[in-house]
Amino acid sequence: MKRLFLLPVLGLSLSASAQQLDSAITLSAYAEAYYSFDLAQPDDHLRPGFVYSHNRHNEVNLNLGMIKLAYAKDNVRGNLALMAGTYPQYNLAAEPELLRSVFEANVGVKLSKTRNLWLDAGIMPSHIGFESAIGKDCWNLTRSMLADNTPYYEAGARVSYTSKNEKWYASGLLLNGWQRIARVDGNNTPAFGTQLTYKPNSKTTLNWSTFIGNDKPDTVSQSRIFNNLYAQLQVTERFGVIVGCDIGMEQAASGDSLPTGQAGSSTWVTPIVIPRYKLGDKSYLAARVEYYQDEKGVIIATGTPNGFTTLGYSLNFDRWVTQNVLWRIEARSLNSEDKIFVDADGKATTSNTFFTASLCITLP
């Protein structure tokens, strides 16, 4: 099925511009091909397990190819997007097979005649974070450790409100879990999310998103509380910066995770800074400094004394070849306190370095 979705995108059988099937329906497409070379040269061509995007080594591959049908008219809206590539292959591996090619499938109705108040339900992009699976919308070529290990998508229902001046956006969500379309077996407890975004002007975005719920079977009963905070600032016409930090806590059941065998909580923190500079009308240079501290292995388990405690750096150059074609190249290095990586000789090491190039096309 994935090949059927991929052929129209790469074969360019779609029109080069969005097709207005009528005044309410829009058809569009996106594809991102990439090549990544890991200096560790893994024999299985697979990068470390906590990497879910652009994660195949030494092969030209498709990270994401997508066709989307959007409907918006009066008080009703909806989206259906199907996809193929290594992103859905690894990010949706735990979902039922028939749902692994679904990027988005939702419908919404407006709840008020006078206010911008909506109810949407179905499979939707995550309300957490400033990065998405669509690479062209992100400042860096590859996704951060923060993004790869928080939800890219979610399934459930959302009530959202946008103020008349469009400076404020607020939403509340009832979810199936932490990046879940289908619930975990044995889990019958709801999960909840919130999002509050403030845009005082076109150059500033401030966001606070939350998640609370148990993403494990009810018998385990571990409550996860998560906060995502970020600010995106366009400081000058050419220079912008994103500053963010995720703080999560999971209440551990008795005898689970904690060395004392007593109930307690485990916390992880992930600060990040991304500066970007516009070199010209079509070129950008962006860097990234990120830190991921998960000593108890709540999100990324290593079984080592310091857990997943990793500092990362990257530098990428972007060039818009045409209005809808983006070429990118990036160098990135990750450095851990413990030897959680392997080198080209198969020996344990504290660092991992890799290089990635990509080509994105958007229709229109």
Q: How would you characterize the largest beta sheet?
A: 16 strands, antiparallel, barrel
In total, how many domains does the architecture comprise? 1
Report the span from N to C terminus: 24 Å
Unreliable spans are: 1-20, 255-262
Give the CA-based shape.
Answer: globular
Task: Quote the CATH topology.
Answer: Porin
> Could you name the CATH class?
Mainly Beta
Going by CATH, the homologous superfamily would be Porin
How is this structure best described in words?
This protein is mainly β. The chain has a single domain (2-363), classed as Porin (Beta Barrel). Helix content is 5%, strand content 54%. The protein has helices spanning 2-10, 86-91, 145-148; strands at 19-22, 25-38, 60-73, 76-84, 102-110, 116-125, 153-162, 168-175, 191-201, 204-213, 224-234, 239-252, 264-278, 283-294, 308-322, 325-336, 341-342, 348-349, 351-363. The strands form 2 sheets. The chain has a 16-stranded antiparallel β-barrel with strand order 2-3-4-5-6-7-8-9-10-11-12-13-14-15-16-19. Strands 17-18 form a two-stranded antiparallel sheet. A hairpin with a 5-residue loop joins strand 17 and strand 18. The longest helix has 9 residues, at 2-10. The protein starts with a helix and ends with a strand.
SSE arrangement:
Elements: H1 2-10, E1 19-22, E2 25-38, E3 60-73, E4 76-84, H2 86-91, E5 102-110, E6 116-125, H3 145-148, E7 153-162, E8 168-175, E9 191-201, E10 204-213, E11 224-234, E12 239-252, E13 264-278, E14 283-294, E15 308-322, E16 325-336, E17 341-342, E18 348-349, E19 351-363
Antiparallel strand pairs: 1-2, 2-3, 2-19, 3-4, 4-5, 5-6, 6-7, 7-8, 8-9, 9-10, 10-11, 11-12, 12-13, 13-14, 14-15, 15-16, 16-19, 17-18
